[in-house]
Write a structure and sequence with these properties.
296 residues, Rossmann fold, three-stranded parallel beta sheet
Amino acid sequence: MTAPTANRSVALFDYFVADPHTLSAGRGKQTAYGAIHFALLEALCDEFDFTVFAVDFDNPRPDRINFVRVPGVVLKPLAVLFVTYHLGALFVYLREIVRRRKRFDVVQCVESNFSLPTVSHAQFNHKAFLRKGWPIARPSGIRRPLRRVDYQLRRTVEPLVYRKASRVVTSSNGLLEDIVQSYPWVRDKTEIIRNAIDIESHSAPDDFDRMTVRGPIGIKPDDTVLTFTALGDFELKGMLLIFEALKRVARADLHFVSVGGPPPLVDAFTERARAIGVGNQVHLMGMQPDVRPFLW
């Protein structure tokens, strides 16, 4: 009789991995990939032995998923979290290796948030951003030098992590091109895995009334709406170009609705829309527990 094959062991590094339902109730924190990681853990925890290294984690299957808390400091500026998580994760990872008495088969991190990955899931290229994007994206006040420090730290660690990883995964051709241009030696170990969309869950219910969302912000039933979602870096992602296009088109029935972004950024771009002369057509909703109603 053949002995059963042991599951492959996977170490997953992310700052926060929260249950989306918990977030909808207004509790918990999440990273850009946190929801993806939560879904992955739920779906595959019976096939793989996962250990999650995070500051906070809503464990959907404590019987199958091990959680190792990382002592990261959750404070602004973000550079504080990056440094404390990076150092704390390395310490608890090595401690876990000693406890287990064997290495993990796969060690996956997000970007450069861990020093010893086999897989780095890249969602940004800090070297390219500092070269091309920073002159365009100009945070105001004290945020500017603090953000610069954060980006510079990540840009310094980025090539070290990519050299250690045996695979660098991105979600788009454009990001892959940026990474290869910045680090040509990484080309042979890159792979594109595009972000999946659950079409069924993102389809509007038959009885959904879009005016329950649009009416309160001054949009009429026959108006045309452009939608936009982003966690930040609005200027780099072209929001000001959209404002200028709205002004040039000069159609009062054309509206722009954006979901995402921290309050200071939302306030700053709301003011910029007013200054350009399209304030009545621009609706920046900030972070929302559910993006879908604004898309419907």
